[in-house]
Design brief:
homotetramer; 213 residues; alpha+beta; L-fuculose-1-phosphate Aldolase; 9-stranded mixed β-sheet; 5 helices; 9 strands; globular; metal-binding (chains A, B, C, D); MethylthioRu-1-P_deHdtase_MtnB (chains A, B, C, D); lyase (chains A, B, C, D)
Chain lengths: 213, 213, 213, 213
């Protein structure tokens, strides 16, 4: 049949359900204000399932999940993909091991992005929770979370991310005034990274208010 | 029948249900302390449905919603409308496109109103979330959220709001020591504006505590 | 029948249910940490229903509510009343119009009590929410919330409260390092006062962190 | 029967249920970010039930609870016990009266541990809530909560804890950049201690931001 969709619809259905449940939990934490943020899962080696732009993330339904190819074009629907889709698909295209990308806008992430935009990164060191990042097995590890300048020019932003990825292992980055991207092997892995960044950024802001850091 | 109500009771019933569900969610966030705050929806081109003054916003029932005309007078009931009803109806009268007005008292809104009352506005710039305001399509937009002096003289307050509305597009304003008014085409639009203001004011306060802004 | 209890058991049952529902909500807000806090309702002109000391306020059951007379002695049970029972019953004895006393330990209340213990009061002014206090009808009212030194000597503390009550209308007081007492005509009235104090103290602390107040 | 487990499986089942319910509540408070934290209950005089390392603490199931002996070795399963198991079992071995050990990673605990690591302890004084610690019956008591340097060398950490325990009564300790250990006779007792530490550390941090303490 010529009209057959080029991806596994059963798998899409599973992933959509998983996205809905997890994004509702993130929304209840206040990390997706005012219909912001977007979330995706790798569907196969050419497609990803991603939230449709502008939907209330606390009330996602299956119709709010669309399929895109790795150039960020809608597949099997006429939904307009979010401008930021490219920041998701560049990760899926480059790393076959990445299965989930989460982009949130918590207040802590936004404030930290503004505060450290000048430095270009947030230096995280001395926290046991650094062990939460896949591959880190000791709390002695330190980590610089990059902060990129905000722009509506997605190909330019994606190129900057690619340059950072060339340098070595990364689990996420901030965009100035905008929020956080975090990713992982699957939803659980990506959420662990997301939660760890949120927690560590929150600690850094508090320590700074207290006159340390 | 001479006693027929001059509005569509079926539509009122729908809007009351929508107000109840949404206000309970806002109340659970702590934005309506001590029975404060009020909420309305346009019913038609002469009437609005609005919460009765002094009710616990976390436990609203249908009997806590009344109808007013655009002069702020009760229609079809003998409930006493809130003194602030006029601040809702002036928006419905002036802009046929406004369908929902939300007035909340979160701590962030109250603190920001006190802090920026002298300046007369809160300047918001450099946030991706500025795109949440209808008509804004780039994060480069900046926005001044007005802060009006508090008073119990509602006609005077309404006149100040009218003067601000003459100057151009507005999505909300603060009243000193009091809280925020935000509005939109419908409930979803107004809530997106309300959430965006709450988020951005929270970021501004945090940045100020951290020695920026 | 000589063994008849000297109060209306049906009324006790109603009040116990009301206390349980309301205290669980306050506990969910984190205002009753580590089994602290206590809560009471007037039963009649000689008795009050009050929470038994040391129970987890998030998991109250009917067996966690006891009856005391206005000298703070257990009636109809051998539960040991909390040492602070006297601070509840002194209000019921003195003011027939008081029907509910709420004592909580939120972090904001505890921090404010430490911060303003030297001054002996927290001055609250310029907030619309001051209208939440029964009898206040304008936001122009100002209010001094007293802060008493902490002590385990309850008769001495009660005497200080009595001296304050002699001076005029009061809706609550703080005890240094300890928490807040608030009261009202009934549960709804007392909760409105409690929520208003919590909100206003929170605003004062935030404004102080921001360099104002 | 040679294969019989050396502990009471019915008791294990009860304790596992209790751990699951309580840890989900702690997780909902945000005290177990990114699969961190671990929790245990004494099973008998040679065994403890403890959470398996790396599980999402907000979604614990019975399969996420394992049995260890007091040397921290798995019993009756091939789960790998957390490296920190030894910090639990050293308490059970030394004090027959300890029935529950809770280790959490709240932001307040982590920030306080960083802030007071240099001093080696957090001094807590002037709080009514100090009465929450078993054996304390007056708010006049003061308490120094130890802060230990973080390390992955558990026997060394355990030896430092033992040295502190030699000095007198203790209800918990912090590890720098890591979190809090608190314990008690049973789950309710340990949770009361945990909540009291969280509350008091939160007050200390707030007072410090406000220019006191």
């Amino acid at each position: 049949m010529t009209d057959a969709l080029p991806y596994d619809t059963h798998r899409l259905c599973e992933l959509a359900g998983e996205i809905i449940v997890n994004v509702r939990e993130l929304s209840a934490l206040g990390w997706t204000p005012a219909t912001s943020s977007n979330f995706s899962r790798r569907l196969d080696d050419r497609h990803a399932a991603i939230t449709v732009s502008g939907r209330d993330k606390g009330k996602l339904r299956e119709a709010d999940i669309m399929v895109v190819d790795f150039d960020g074009r809608a597949v099997g629907s006429d939904h307009r993909p979010s401008a930021e889709t490219l920041l998701h698909t560049q990760l899926y295209r480059r790393f076959p091991g990445i299965g989930c990308v989460l982009h949130t806008h918590s207040q802590v992430q936004t404030v930290a992005s503004r505060l450290y935009a000048g430095a270009g990164h947030v230096h995280l060191e001395g926290y046991e929770l650094l062990k939460a990042f896949s591959g880190n097995t000791t709390h002695e590890t330190e980590l610089d979370l990059p902060v990129l300048p905000n722009t509506q020019d997605m190909p330019s932003l994606a190129a900057q991310v690619d340059a950072l990825l060339d340098r070595g292992d990364m689990w996420g980055y901030l965009i100035d005034g905008h929020g956080l991207y975090a990713w992982g092997r699957d939803m659980a892995d990506a959420r662990r990274h997301l939660e760890a960044f949120e927690f560590l950024l929150g600690c850094e802001l508090e320590l700074r208010k207290l006159g340390c850091a």
